[in-house]
Amino acid sequence: MIHTFFSSTLRELQLFLRSWRFWTTFALVVLIFAVTGPYGTSERMMPGMRLGYWLIVHAVAWTIAILFSVMADVLLRPYLRHTLARMMIGSLAAALPIGFALGAIDFTFTGRWNEMDGGLRRALFALPLCALFCLLTYMSMHRQIAAVSASPPAAPSPPPPSTTEPEILARLKPQNRGPLVRLSVADHYTDVVTTRGRELVLMRFADALKELGGTSGLQVHRSHWVADRHVERLRRDDGKLFVVMKDGAEIPVSRPNLDAVRNRFGTL
Q1: Does the domain made of 167-265 have the CATH classification 3.40.50.1010?
Q2: How far apart are CA 73 and CA 75, in angstroms?
């Protein structure tokens, strides 16, 4: 249970770290605060100091808010169906530690330490900001968050290799019969690739998949199937995911199969 919690939390945190939208939004917000100098910072601080102050403030506040939102998303998943509701609870809970963190930052820059009631006031002030941050984050990244939340934390183990020869090999010429590498659609044919060669078989792709027997593999696209033992790695190009085979072939992955492919081959 604990391992699953930490694994799921880490996966969602990595989603934020890899998102250009998140970093762009963060940079714009920091720049706006540094230029406008709200809450008297334009009078008290020079431009360079003001930029550093707001950079630290937002880095700390966003880090705490994201951490609390992600943990709440993972912990409350069995009890609340809507991702935004789970994240909002965590984001609002982050207001209290954010309030005291801002007090520590002000002490670093001004030398004045706020008492407990000052930290509580800051926390109350941070509540609407936390809610707004959560809403903006969800609106810009809800698809990615939902995809990560829906995928299982650990990849299932591939089935053991079969000791019986797949039926489809009987359709090939004797010199092409060997361990299966991949299958692909080719008009009305199925292109069967083995370690000993390739051959076009006149049959539907769906029927060809039924004749794989217990061969360990995965359908990565509606037109492609690959054998586990012949997958080398995954490659992303211009937002599209490809399975790179040991023979150098690159097989595209369709959107409905992204999670299954990452879970099966993501650690290669």
Answers
A1: no
A2: 6
